[in-house]
Design brief:
alpha+beta; Alpha-Beta Plaits; 4 strands; globular; MafI2-like
């Protein structure tokens, strides 16, 4: 698969996986990938991560894995109050809430 085709497939898959999964503590979600070798998803939160946050990110990546067979998955939930512009977007932002 060509890089553009992989990117489109991954972004569509994660957008579908995120339907109904966004909650108020999530500031932004970044996704990164190295072809279909590794998927990385980061939840940037406005609070310290809890088990529920890790369960949520795991549900999302499981949905993506149902579409695309990645060899490795990395999930991170990070508490930060840094401006979103200073956070690592990896390959792409897939969600970003409006902050004033």
């Amino acid at each position: 698969m060509e890089n553009t085709e992989i990117r489109v497939k991954i972004l569509l898959s994660i957008q579908r996986a995120l339907l109904g999964m966004i909650y108020s503590s999530i500031r932004a979600i970044a996704v990164g990938f190295e072809k279909t070798e590794k998927l990385k998803v980061i939840y940037y939160l406005d609070k310290k991560p809890t088990e529920d946050d890790y369960d949520s990110i795991s549900e999302v990546t499981t949905e993506v894995l149902a579409d695309i067979d990645f060899s490795e998955v990395e999930e991170k939930c990070i508490f930060t109050l840094e401006p979103i512009s200073k956070l690592d977007k990896l390959n792409s932002w897939v969600y970003m809430r409006k902050e004033l």
